[in-house]
Write a structure and sequence with these properties.
heteropentamer, A mainly alpha (about 325), B alpha/beta (about 240), C mainly alpha (about 300), D alpha/beta (about 270), E alpha/beta (about 375), A: about 325 residues, mainly alpha, two-stranded antiparallel sheet, C: about 300 residues, ABC transporter involved in vitamin B12 uptake, BtuC, 11 helices, binds adenosine-5'-triphosphate, binds magnesium ion
Amino acid sequence: MNQTFNPASIHQAIVEQQKAQDRKKMIVNGVLLLLLMAAPFVMYPVFLMKILCFALFAVAFNLLFGFTGLLSFGHAAFLASGGYTTGYLLSNFSGLTTELGILAGTATATAMGLVFALLSIRRQGIYFAMVTLALAQLVFFFFVQSEFTGGEDGMHGIPRGELFGLINLEDNLNMYYFVLAVFIACYLLVQRIVSSPYGQILKAIKQNEPRAVSLGYNVDRYKILAFVISAALAGLAGSMKSVVFQLASLNDAHWHMSGEVILMTLVGGMGTLLGPVVGATFVVNVEYQLSQGPLRDWVDPILGGIFVLTVLAFRSGIVGELQKFMRKNLG
Amino acid sequence: MSSNPDREYEQLRMSGLHAFYGESHILHGIDLVVHRGELVTLLGRNGAGRSTTLKAIMNMVGRRTGSIMINGEETMQCAPHHIARLGVGYCPEHRGIFSSLSVQENLTLPPVVRSGGMSLEEIYTMFPNLYERRFSQGTKLSGGEQQMLAMARILRTGANMLLLDEITEGLAPVIVEKLGEVLVALKNKGLTIILVEQNFHFAAPLADRHYVVEHGQIVEEISANELSAKQSVLDSYLGV
Amino acid sequence: MTMIFGVPLAVLSGQLLIGIINGAFYALLSLGLAVIFGLLKIINFAHGAMYMLGALVTVVLFDLLGVNYWVALFVAPVLVGAFGILIEYFLLRRIAGQDHIYSLLLTFGVALIIQGVLTNIYGVSGLRYSMPDLFKGGINLGFMFLPYYRAWVIVVALLVCFGTWFIIEKTKLGSYLRAGTEDSQLMQGFGINVPLLVSLTYGFGVMLAAFAGVLAAPIYSVTPVMGSNILIVVFAVVVIGGMGSIGGAIITGILMGIIEGLTKTFYPPASSAVIFLVMVVVLMIRPAGLFGKEA
Amino acid sequence: MSEQYVLETRNLVKEFKGFVAVNDVNLQIRQGDIHALIGPNGAGKTTVFNLLTKFLIPTRGQILYRGEDITPLKSAAIARKGIVRSFQISAVFPHMTALENIRVALQTAEGSSYSFWKSGHSLHKLNERCMELLESVGLAEFANTTTVELAYGRKRALELATTLAMEPQLLLLDEPTQGMGSEDVDRVVALVRKAAQGRTVLMVEHNLSVVSKLCDRITVLAQGAVLTEGDYQTVSADPRVREVYMGSDGSGERGAQAPSQENVEAAQ
Amino acid sequence: AISDNTVKIGYLADMSGTYRDLAGPNGLAALEMAIKDFGGKVNGAKIEVVSADDRNSPDTSSSTVRRWVENDKVDLVAGLVASSVSIAVSKILEENDRLGIVSGSAASSITNEHCTPNHIHYVYDTYPLANGTASAVVKEGGKSWYLLTADYAFGHALEGDVTRVVEANGGEIVGSVRHPFPTQDFSSFILQAQASGADVVGLANAGADTTNAITTASEFGVTQSGQTLAALLLFLTDVHALGAETAQGIQLTTGWYWDMNEETREWSDRFMKETGVRPTMVHAGIYSSTLQYLNAVAATGSDDAQTVRKQMMETPINDMFAKNGRIREDGRMVHDMFLAEVKTPAESRDEWDLYKILRTIPADEAYRPLSESKCKLVNN
Ligand SMILES: Nc1ncnc2c1ncn2[C@@H]1O[C@H](COP(=O)(O)OP(=O)(O)OP(=O)(O)O)[C@@H](O)[C@H]1O
Ligand SMILES: Nc1ncnc2c1ncn2[C@@H]1O[C@H](COP(=O)(O)OP(=O)(O)OP(=O)(O)O)[C@@H](O)[C@H]1O
Ligand SMILES: [Mg+2]
Ligand SMILES: [Mg+2]
């Protein structure tokens, strides 16, 4: 059988294969985009924006967890610090346009991400998760103690303002398309990162860290970069969320939120691109719809049941299982 | 070779054994018989399925079909811990040294399944390295020392059928030589041994019979005295 | 009066003692968690719920059947432990060998179910349970009034902790457990009934949590959500001690009780955050916790 | 080349809690040599490797690379200097294809490894070199196979190819033939010989036939210290080496002394 | 006119979390009782109820209420417990000009800096809680106070109010400790309170924190050693959980108690038949405020927020919940409050017979005077 192959053709096949994958990705992205563009005419825009914000949060988390193998249990800190910063600036400096407020929120989260990363990156496995949790708890403590956050009453009445001083964001549709644009941009960025040369190294580090070290990679730096990007995107999600809802609250900083994003990612399918989006959509929807309906006293146990079921029956998450199914049945 | 009264006793009989890891079908109908006190080897290329055969005996593969009789008892439905209790000692290819236990704890870990195993002193005299390092963490041993430990610990249990996977791997020639002597001694005590080996030079003089495995099937059975006659066949299988 | 940083010595000694008592509680809870994580590699997010169940079962048994405290001290942990074994058998077993994160998700789901269902039955205000008569009152130690019940808590909690440590670190059974967590398949290959061992271990860890719950019933408000906040604190204790180190969990538990107690004296608002500060600092200096072995 | 030795260690010591694993070792490795480190189990060979690549920090002593003191450098920095190792226990990226495994190594030199904004297609230019390397270890047909699915021996071969992709100046191989069938062993021997052209190789190996075929110079370690040094002839003739390491059968073949000489001859 | 010929009421409250028992599902029952008692229809128009769990989350609640007012045409939002939720919801109601009646929140900021022309704060807030309990206790001789304050906005507000009242009455705060929220073990704080030698240990916290603090205080013999416990916010459900034995002698302020008179007893019996428990002041407030709302709709023939609110402000409230209650321009419903003491086990007939009413605190004395208001609707 040594005679039947030749390296050039294998190389060709690999390139073709990747191109085919790219085409598939393009199709999926296109369909997704169309759906999202049309969505506000079918569903309630503020609710859709909530989903998009959480989806972005989960995508950010998954970049670190699903693609780098680092489980952060403190991502709520970034969501909240983005939200509070943007909220504070927009409420107190009326000259500031919305996008600057959001940028500032993102920048704060990015800086905080760098600090978290520097302090935690050397820890392995569960220790890493716990250091990030601990740091996030300290941040939570800071938010509880600070006057500007409004404590458990929260920060209210954040003005949505005008995008670039031009587009009125008080209008829900305008706001929606702005959030959508940001979301799509971030999603494509993560898609790009994952398949980029850098993404390959992340994958390698995730799979066998000592080997990556022995190949001459300073793995800490790669991990820090991933952490910072992830924190920035999480902060961006928080910033946008505070503008959408015009409020920021301690719920976003609580460790339950760090837990929730893990759950969203797992339910959707970790290590897949679409998984966190689907997971966030699913969890936010289930929680919201249940809280409205006749089962509103039973939201927690039902969510609990869903998590149990996910682990037992759909371990790779909704998207992961779907991919498996397609691979099996459609080759 | 010393002729043993039990020589005719069937210690192990595998028939039509198939084994799977998840989706992949690894063993395609293995048939073999090992008598009490015999030492047989499983030879073959990398990936032929020799380790899998041993694991299948221990019920450590994903799924199995066919039949495995140990001491005349069907074991297809048995959990691994029952199989061990039938007197089977397994030394895995990956060594399986426990890092949370000291060397000595590792050594005394497997429960004694039958009387007649070696004592701790005997083992320490056989492997002085282990004695020297007996209080250090199991996985802090050097590669070769771990290999010795993996082998040594099943000698204590009194198992009368040993499944040994690549036990000379990574050992210095002196130790390999010593292991050879140990195997001969064990055989003389009446133990049944199934040996998976890459090191044919080590295995050849010890074994009563050789099975050649390829693509999950037994393709050849060669007894010690036909070895020279079938040398070329063997070479072609092993790619020497 | 002798003062230390503006706090009278008498008050400080009282606070230290209180710290040790709370530490004994933490030790008991984190011990169960350490056993479950250390030995089974299960991140048991249902631990808080099991603690709660221990307390709730005590109260409910009393209300329904008039079962007294002393009986509950044995019966409640056994019942909850048996429940834990069922969870292990029907749920956790199916994900053995998978990434730890799945056990987190699974046990978190289980905790949500247990807490949610019980909230709908018993509400959140708390259930009434009165102190056994034997423990009413206390002694004056000079620097503080020590309720008898707290003295009992510290004694019994430390005894249970020490017993558990001994079994796991010093007995053959313990070495089976430790080895079984690393390579359960091979342990089975040596003739040990690992699945049974795993069930029993999980049940035992859960029992420890429930035992702490019974101890808590007379002194804390018993509600279905009483375990949800204590959970991450206990996790922090286990991590600071070093995952998998049984002795570490016990010592750290007590240490954290003391540190928390001192914080409650000097800067109370930080008393819930201080443990996380300690965790960051400890892991900075010792990446595998105080007593953990580095990988 | 002004320096005669590529790598030198001076009084290298490693202690573990009072146990001396490496004791005052002075190694001198000449440019272009294939240098073997042999010795009984637990002699400290792997530990020396770990010290050279900083997976362990020396208790005392110095490591010089081309005359430069590299003792304080970290693992990754050492790898970037061109000192690359393979592991005793196989080290691959299990969920990547064989080709991707090698590509990761090639990316080090590429300088684009932080480029998170670049397309994945930018890596295809490395594929050709990957295929060459895969072919050289006989794995070309498995280029697109996920590594977990490879048999043990093939994983080892892949690991070697990955290491070579780093274009190392000094190659450290820890038991490269372990777990391989004789067929593969021969391939590896050929491969190492090919790889050694223009490079220096330091290897640990228990298979004496490999050592005798390949190595220009041999250092024997025992109990952490250097026992003797020289070419294969000298070393194998040394009675101390025979006693602690080679055993009674110093023939250079790996294996025990045969209880029955005929069988062995038959087997050869 | 009544929009779409339907009056739609949305009930939003914590159905599953920490505040479940004081409002929760039973609050919905109280609301439905009010509609039934009103006759199920108003001026021939249907009355519909929708309900949701607020998840104690302002953003989930915002989504819910936005949909309610924008899509489902909800006219009134009732319930409203967590203050972050109440404030967030009131902003949305203001934007969309609908009405909200807050029955569960304690924050007095709801009708102060966060006041809007679109909501009413009905049952109680921190101001009278401090006023009632603190002044009564000081007047009885509890001059020196030690405060255990929950370290968040609610606790801080309560602490501020108590300090003001205690000092105004000639008492003094000798010490205080801010404990994290939530805290399970209070022994350390109780010990500090004991060591302070204060006459009174004031609990400026709520819910499980308060019950835990009281349990621990009883365990450590705080009352035996001569100190008085004053809880600033206790609901009937909390006292019920503690039991008379542990809670006896504690003084507290409440807006309503089920066993005050024939009228309250009659309604409470009906409530208990529905739900199996005695109502808290929040449950009674939800019932009362819903009836008042429906009366106003009937009187004006309109469900327009401003029309109804105006009508409600002009109508004094006289029902089983309040006598001579009135709604001020800042949205605060002011009514008499009551100083109560928890009965001893000997005095208590059954598990719900828990309070002795000691004193009535007249409405004008109880609530923050408008002259101190920071509300944008009040001209100061
Ligand atoms: N856990 C597993 N999952 C899937 N496939 C496996 C697994 N373990 C082994 N295999 C595959 O089964 C086949 C036989 O493997 P086995 O380990 O039995 O080979 P072997 O003959 O012992 O060779 P080696 O010399 O490599 O040990 C190989 O192709 C291997 O890739
Ligand atoms: N981290 C460690 N802690 C304690 N002792 C160690 C550690 N690493 C190695 N050792 C000990 O140091 C000695 C040398 O080990 P090393 O792995 O270098 O041996 P080696 O020469 O590579 O042997 P082999 O040929 O068996 O692989 C051994 O006795 C081993 O037990
Ligand atoms: Mg094998
Ligand atoms: Mg070695």
